[in-house]
DNA sequence: GCGACAG
DNA sequence: ATCTTGTCGC
């Protein structure tokens, strides 16, 4: 699962990062469908399992989900996650009957050493607005965060603000929100907050994770269908 | 050289 | 990410 030249992937990241759009293409857009994407692994890490869920806005009701399994081509290397997960995400994306207007991806967007986390990389591929929602930090520094849900501080890296650190839920570790593609930093944070429903993760990401891991919450949803 | 390091 | 039971705190 190696055989690849990291210097070459690094050059690709620098090239792709220059194509990322960090502002709202449609200032007043009101999405009809919002999606969530997540990737898990099985068979001792040799197979990537990507899940994507489609939810209505503003109800945030699950209306479609798909799962794709693809052979892994690269081991996990911090900073190169997108090359490991994008093939599987691209596979589920093709399976979707409904294409979303906005997509949340589990992982960093531009909050990456070279500005190309998986949310940005996949956003360029799908060519739609994407937001990166990571459960931990890859790079950057940030000031102490308030304990109240909703409090947020800037994530800075080399003198630049690359994202926000958001306390989405009381007594829970914060989320690292960043622009994926075709959206502004302010919108990325605002849409994340608008998709919160009492849990640490915004609904799209939470359900994508539930589907990818076949969690009880998803099983109950299936039974009610 | 040493420590950090999305999922 | 994944392997996995109980357990501490609200």
Automatic annotation (TrEMBL):
Q: Which InterPro entries match?
A: Endonuclease-V
Instruction: Detail which positions bind Mg(2+).
Output: 38, 106
Q: Where is the site described as Interaction with target DNA found in this chain?
A: 76
Q: Name one GO molecular function term.
A: deoxyribonuclease V activity
Give the top-level enzyme category. Answer: hydrolase
Database matches in NCBIfam families: PRK11617.1
Name the UniProt record assigns to this protein: Endonuclease V
Classification from the root reads: Bacteria, Pseudomonadati, Pseudomonadota, Gammaproteobacteria, Enterobacterales
Gene this protein is translated from: nfi
């Amino acid at each position: 699962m190696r055989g690849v030249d990291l210097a070459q992937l690094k050059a690709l990241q620098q090239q792709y990062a220059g194509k990322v759009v960090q502002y709202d293409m449609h200032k007043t857009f009101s999405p009809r469908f919002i999606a969530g994407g997540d990737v898990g692994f099985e068979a001792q890490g040799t197979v990537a399992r990507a899940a994507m869920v489609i939810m209505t806005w503003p109800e945030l009701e699950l209306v479609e989900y798909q799962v794709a399994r693809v052979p892994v081509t690269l081991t996990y290397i911090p900073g190169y996650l997108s090359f490991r997960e994008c093939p599987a995400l691209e596979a589920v994306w093709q399976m979707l009957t409904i294409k979303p207007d906005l997509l949340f991806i589990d992982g960093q967007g531009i909050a990456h050493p070279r500005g190309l986390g998986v949310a940005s990389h996949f956003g360029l591929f799908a060519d739609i607005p994407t937001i990166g929602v990571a459960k931990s930090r890859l790079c950057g520094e940030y000031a102490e965060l308030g304990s109240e849900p909703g409090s947020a501080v800037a994530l800075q890296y080399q003198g630049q603000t690359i994202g926000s650190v958001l306390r989405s839920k009381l007594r829970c570790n914060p989320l690292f929100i960043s622009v994926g593609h075709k959206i502004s930093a302010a919108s990325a944070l605002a849409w994340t907050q608008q998709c919160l429903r009492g849990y640490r993760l915004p609904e799209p990401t939470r359900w994508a994770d539930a589907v990818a891991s076949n969690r009880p919450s998803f099983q109950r949803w299936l039974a009610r269908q």
